[in-house]
Amino acid sequence: MKLIVIGHGMVGHKFLETLYADAGASAFEVTVLCEEPRPAYDRVHLSEFFAGRSADQLSLVAPGFFERPGLTLKLDAKAVAVDRAARTVTLADGEVLGYDKLVFATGSSPFVPPVPGRERAGCFVYRTIEDLEAMLAHGATARSGVVIGGGLLGLECAKALRDMQLETHVVEFAPRLMAVQVDELGGRMLRSHIEALGVTVHTQKNTLRIVDGESALHRMEFADGSVLETDMIVFSAGIRPRDELARACGLELGPRGGIAIDDACVASDPDVYAIGECAAWQGQTFGLVAPGYDMARTVARALLGQAGTFGGADMSTKLKLMGVDVASIGDAHAATPGSRSFQFSDERKRVYKKIVVSDCGKRLLGAVLVGDAAEYGSLLQAMLNGLRLPAAPEFLILPAGEGGARPAIGVDALPATAQVCSCNAVSKGTILDAVAGGACDIAAVKACTNAGTACGGCVPLVNQIMKAEMLQRGLAVSNHLCEHFPYSRQELHHLVRVGGLRSFGELLHKHGKGLGCDICKPVAANILASAWNDFVLKPEHASLQDSNDYFLGNIQKDGSYSVVPRMPGGEVTPDGLIAVGQVAKKYGLYTKITGGARVDMFGARVDQLPAIWEELIAAGFESGHAYGKSLRTVKSCVGSTWCRYGVGDSMAFGVALENRYKGLRAPHKIKFGVSGCTRECAEAQGKDVGLIATDKGWNLYVCGNGGMKPRHAELLASNLDEAAVVRLVDRFLMFYVRTADRLQRTSTWRANLDTELENGLDYLKQVVVEDSLGLAAELEADMQRVVDSYADEWKNAVEDPAVRARFRSFVNSDQHDDNVVFMPERGQVRPATPEERRFIPITRTA
Known about the structure:
By secondary structure, the chain is α/β, with parallel strands linked by helices.
């Protein structure tokens, strides 16, 4: 049987994969017509092309796929006519091919509004790799770019323009971004995220025409009388089904376009099928890849004589747009009669969450998540499977209260029929069967079920189901760091210490495979630093660091860096304050007292950092490690030295503790608090390590956190003298460093102990205070080695010419970054907005 597939995009290739996964495919002679010069590639991750991912890396075609007998792929092969009576397809070069069955997988084309000037040079659409290559070529000489369209694709395109280092604007006709997926409050929160990333958003803008600009290539004129000049315009205002061939050959179309299909994806001609964005099922077209994949499987199975129908698709979606989590589930706009909604908004952290429930409050109808979509998987399954909600459903999206956990919809509640991976139609039951068959890590589950191999959004839920089933079967649950190391962070730390490994290369050679990744490299760098305390920017370590550690400063939203000198215990001399002020004034830095009681200076260019550090070092300061997973601050009150209520010298002890632990690298940042009496002015019970003086000595509290998920610290030991405090803190910190997971705060580490043991606090007391494991001397010795080997990282950096040479804005030029500009505010400076950078470029004097 001769089969022609018109189109070889993601859905077309999924059809071929499904067909050729069955031995029955040998009965077909298949010709695939691909209009583009390359076979199918991943359009979902198309923006990664601008971040350096090549066309080959985006390819979806496995090596050798088209070497099968009876399968032919024609590239640059545009179909121009279909003769249904003669059952032929004519190509642009005149070739005529016959078929018995025909599959349309022509996808969609970008919608370009009929705006005069849309065909000018420097105007683009965002659809194919060729489009992206043209954008890159033009962008090399452009300073600014505008995306017309603030939907999913528009924001993806905005990220691409930002990756090209262009001043970026998004112009949207609707009153908010992503108007289809998110509600008004969600749109407002999303906008604040996008603008914080340096993109200027213009909503309720109707573009009338595009003409020559005065200060840029184009001038966009809007219906409200405003204008916007830019060097580059990209249209991303939606898509339209590619149904022109079907229209010309007389196939029925949907009311809003698209090839009309039935539940078997058959068009109005029984020998013709349509799948993906070109198809209209019950008048509806689908712009997501998952429904297209479902159609592809339906048609492949039908041709193989197997049962299967397409019954529509849930349009819930989760994306990461410019690094911002955004998710929309079901009835996000609460359109269902009688529905009620619960909303949580934290504008400081830019997090917005809403759930829509039935009038009885027992079923989830929809949800919107912006800024944090951690609950997406469980909420989606609750909606799809009609799971009964807890009595207080609002707590599903509210932050956990002090000492309590939020109610959860566990994976055990999901039926076996629950679809976990919509891209590849993988149910919970299929994953359970995979675990029963021996698939006991996420890679194995992916390999035998295909779950999580497309968009990847379901991987966290797949992992939860896999681990829950493994525990149910009494199997050991893998906690491998990543695909390159079959070990947990705890195990890697042990291997480094016992093996005396001093570099990532040694660690990878002896215990890993491949080249490493963005997960294992920073973890290895952190482990090596905590074990040996080597300088993090030594040649063998530098490439492993994230951007903050690589430049020994926190990068800010505008690309500048902060400088935070250490002020142990919050103590600083008048001369020290004067020196800090002089440095800040000389380099035009914004200054602020931090929550940890020290001075933070913002706005340093990367090329200025070594000079700033040199002046601070000369004044007696050193790095405050505000950029590192390490001890940040020891907050203290003045204690018995000055305060009439003080019973302990919290000031002197706080200074001593900060000087002792200032060189320690840990899985996450560490903060101390030392209070001179029970009035607790230093807030010690909200810190990783807290000390409160009493008339009997010091009380030691651990594992507190005052951040995103506040946790009250717990009493580890009481009535201690200072020497005993140091011994116990040495043991506690080194035990944490050895056993915590990557990026795990002490509060989370402590909470996990309760999930693994009957009483985590008792266990911690036994190990740290009672030395139940016999590790006390070893832990203390490890800490002493860190203390003895301490060296100031800023000093190392400025004294090493090779390291110092790294501190420049551009690898091939000594020029400054002109995008780092400031505006005056309240007697200081702040980052300029994109609009201010365009019209009032202001630079500092130094």
